[in-house]
Design a protein that fits this description.
Radius of gyration: 33 Å
Largest sheet: 8 strands, mixed
Structural class: alpha/beta
Order of helices and strands: HEEEHHEEEHEHEEHEH
Number of helices: 7
Shape: globular
Number of strands: 10
Strand order of the largest sheet: 1-2-4-3-7-8-9-10
Helix content: 25-40%
Amino acid sequence: MPRSSWATLLSAFACACANAASPRPSPAAESWPTPALPEPMPSPPPVLVDTLDVPGDQPVFALRGGRESGVVGVVFHGWCAHGMGFLQAFQTAAAAAGRFIALQGDHHCGSGPMRGWSNDVTGLDRRIDAALRAYLGHEPPSQILLIGSSQGVERAVDLSRRFPEKYRWLILTSGPHAIPAAGLGRLGGAYFFVGQYEGRRPMQLSRDALGRAGIPVELQVIAGAGHADFHGQGDPLLRQALGFFRLAP
């Protein structure tokens, strides 16, 4: 091959190698928009029980951080006890189900904060209405769940008898006396708890009486518990009771 032809061939080969080694710009990669990061989700409000002033009455204890819809419940502590601690025992499950308040009894137990309940059922109903107005910001709902412990069981049952269309479901812990079914026929259901280490007969008789009257009813023994005690199991126990009434979310 003539020398000029070899020179031309080598020159073309050198150019091809140089072109292959040169980086090629990415087609418009730098012009792509940077994707926007999603806005962080706000943290849910904490679940807690605080004090709520009620005009013309003593303060009540109000559950915060719960669902704005769902069931509305009112909680009654036992004799010479305190409403805040009772509601706190199952506050997480209550918050998932709706909105709850705990009243403080109208009977003084000495000079301290502990209270009991008088027999003024009509007055108690008025107190509930006033407390729920302050808590909800509107008129109380037409149907309310009641939760009572020890003496609070008696007040919850009395309210359901006096106002059967209003107080429709009962969750009752460690009631001191057997409950007859008279006047309770409109209940949507009753769920009884009793501690493993307390007398069970009153709650067993209550369950049997209401069951014979055709009221949906259940009784559960709380393992390891004594009187008016959830033994650290308040949240799962309340969820179970609400599920029985089909009020759980």
